[in-house]
Amino acid sequence: MGLAAAAAAAVRPCRRRLLSSASTSAASKTAAGTATRLFPRLPHPHQPPYGRRLPFLVSAASQSQASQAGPATPVPVPVPSDPRAAVSGNLPFFDRVLFPDSFPLETPPAREEEDAAAVEPAAPLREETETEREAWRLLRRAVVSYCGEPVGTVAAEDPECTETLNYDQVFIRDFVPSALAFLMRGETEIVRNFLLHTLQLQSWEKTVDCYSPGQGLMPASFKIRTVPLDENNEGFEEVLDPDFGEAAIGRVAPVDSGLWWIILLRAYCKITGDNALLERVDVQTGIQLILSLCLADGFDMFPTLLVTDGSCMIDRRMGIHGHPLEIQALFYSALRCSREMLVVNNGSKNLIRAINNRLSALSFHIREYYWVDMKKINEIYRYKTEEYSHDATNKFNIYPEQIPSWLVDWIPEKGGYLIGNLQPAHMDFRFFSLGNLWAIASSLTTPKQAEGILSLIEEKWDDLVANMPLKICYPAMEDDEWRIITGSDPKNTPWSYHNGGSWPTLLWQFTLACIKMGRPELARRAIAVAEERLSDDKWPEYYDTRSGRFIGKQSRSYQTWTIAGFLTSKMLLENPELASILTCDEDLELLEGCACCLSTKRTRCSRRAAKSHTG
Ligand code: GLC
Fold first, then answer.
1. Is 174 in the pocket of ligand 1 (CB under 6 A)?
2. What is the DSSP string of 561-597?
3. How far, in Å, from the CA of 55 to the mean position of ligand 1?
4. Bigger pLDDT: 379 or 100?
5. Does residue 9 have a pLDDT over 70?
6. Nearest-atom index, ligand 1, CA of 169
């Protein structure tokens, strides 16, 4: 798309539409001489009041500023002076997934005037169950519009809850299962709108000061506000107001948002074949900004991404600072997706090289150092410590006393899993579901490890699924550990919320992993457990207790990603071929290029060596 066309596509006649209901004289007064803003938003502290500049409007001066960014930004984002230059390459790996014949391809026409709850879903392949019908009704009720167009779903719509907090916002991570349900139903418009509007919210300024988002950061959530155009309150406009963590409880910055955005972009493009969107300069630049932020040099030498506590789905203090598995799995997946989507040209070739290098090192590192099974635990149990040398066996100086007593009995003979975190002298042995499942989906693990993880879940069904799939992590932290690590967080008491609670939204990721590994029967079993209770329990956000028997102490009802996760799981099971919009296959080429600094002789690890590590 050329410059003018892209700019025109970005302008929404929102303000005028709202003005038409106000007095016309006020309308002409305020509209005269005022340029319509591109996606207007509330001013952000430390940011100019007129929203973000679009990439193709960036001046030559700021381009040269960007190129002088120095060593902290090794992969500068190319901002082409001629936007067409960015689309002259090709998309080498990109395969479109076709809808099954029976799928409705057209988005049903919007019926704005009607009560959203009355809108029936598009024709299903088979008779839907009552629970599915209710889920679709609730999912549609959660849809929010901006300038008359659907742009996302609120996190929860719980009529009985008086304390809304930020659950009335559209969270990037929460919207993913909603988006998938809509995509698989052929309703693609809401996803396209979401992708483009959140792109406009992405932090575009280069900031070095505190309390403002760094360039490339995607918000955790956004809200649509209606604000007066002037003091007379005669006309109003809608603005998208993002939260990068400045207002969030604990002020946590969302590292996962940008990664999810990339993953969803690929899923959308694979299912719709909308390459025109993918090739847009603003979309290409958005991907590059996210990746540049992730690939920027720091003090860390690991290929894993170094983050603060609470930077993902677990957005409270839970001892997951450092290199938590969830972020690494999403990072790997986003890198794989980006590699398929980035247009190859002079401006992007360095970034693509950096992506390939990182992918190789990251997969080696996780496969080798995060994987535990019976054999590995036994090795750690006999580790020597304080080894100073390049060829140390116990590279991270792990003291065997760290092996928790629960693990000694818990680790099954067959199978294994990726640990939650790895730092010097510290292995977090907790099992985190999302990270493990997403590592399967993205092929961050070897196929054998992926099988091993599912086999462990099957073996430990009563701990990880029990009365409600799926435990967010296992086991819970108790007593002093809970006091010190969570800071005595009353929401994260043992076996509640993030600390060993059960989250039905994780069902869709479990289903995805099961389909990828050819084990749909496991997913079917888990879905049946959830289907028993979700509707009767009013679609809770999470469940409490060791076996997930009680609805969570402070759980919202009608939590959108619970609803959407259920629908997405069912639809994926019925159309397993659609799983490929989210998954990546094992790429042996990547293992070839792995130059791992942590390997004993600093030699390149060959494909065979890398495979034999994890065999
Ligand atoms: C909670 C969850 C977070 C989710 C948000 C909205 O903060 O921890 O993962 O995105 O609620 O549902």
1. yes
2. HHHHHHHHHHHHHH-GGGGGGT-----HHHHHTEE-T
3. 30
4. 379
5. no
6. 6
Alpha helix stretches (DSSP H) within 126-279: 130-141, 172-184, 189-201, 256-272, 275-278
Mean of pLDDT values over 294-316: 93
Task: For 76-220, list the strands marked E by DSSP.
Answer: 143-146, 149-153, 170-171
If you average pLDDT over every residue of the chain, what do you get? Answer: 81
Taking the centre of ligand 1 as the mean of its atom positions, its distance from the CA of residue 315, in whole angstroms, is: 7
Give the ligand 1 atom nearest the CA of 497: 8
Per-residue pLDDT of 308-330, as tens digits, reads: 999 999 999 999 999 999 999 99
- Rounded CA-CA distance 394/380 in Å is 8
CA-closest residue to ligand 1 atom 6: 155
**CA of residue 382 to ligand 1 center, whole Å:** 40
What pLDDT, on the 0 to 100 scale, is given for residue 215?
Answer: 83
Q: Which residues contact 387 (CB under 8 A, 6 or more apart)?
A: 393, 394, 395, 397
Q: How far is the CA of 8 from the centre of ligand 1 (A)?
A: 35
Task: Give residues with Cβ within 8 angstroms of 569, minimum separation 6.
Answer: 507, 508, 510, 511, 523, 527, 530
In which band, very low, low, confident or very high, does the pLDDT at 95 lie, cut at 50, 70 and 90? low
Q: Is 243 in the pocket of ligand 1 (CB under 6 A)?
A: no
What is the rounded end-to-end Cα distance, in angstroms, of the chain?
Answer: 47
Residue with tokens 């199978």: 415
Predicted confidence (pLDDT) per residue in 430-457, tens digit:
999 999 999 999 999 999 999 999 999 9
> Which mutation among 163, 165, 174, 541 tests ligand 1's pocket best, with the greatest number of atoms within 8 A of CB?
174
The top-level CATH class assigned to 144-587 is mainly alpha
Mutate to test the pocket of ligand 1, among 314, 315, 432, 539 (most ligand atoms within 8 A of CB): 315
Comparing 42-56, 80-94, 541-555, the range with the smallest average pLDDT is: 42-56
Global pTM value = 0.81
Q: Are 212 and 47 in contact (CB under 8 A)?
A: yes
Locate tokens 């070839």: which residue? 592
Q: Is 313 in the pocket of ligand 1 (CB under 6 A)?
A: yes
- Regarding the beta carbon of 192 and ligand 1, being less than 6 Å apart is answered no
Please report, for the chain, the start and end positions of each structural domain, with discontinuous segments joined by +.
144-587
With beta carbons less than 8 A apart as the criterion, state whether 58 and 82 touch.
no
Q: Are strands 416-418 and 236-243 parallel, antiparallel or unpaired?
A: unpaired
CA dist 27 and 61 (Å) reads 36
Query: What pLDDT, on the 0 to 100 scale, is given for residue 208?
Result: 57
> pLDDT at residue 36 above 50?
no
Residue 186 has pLDDT above 90, yes or no: yes
Question: If you measure from the C-alpha of residue 312 to the centroid of ligand 1, how many angstroms do you get, rounded to a whole number?
Answer: 9
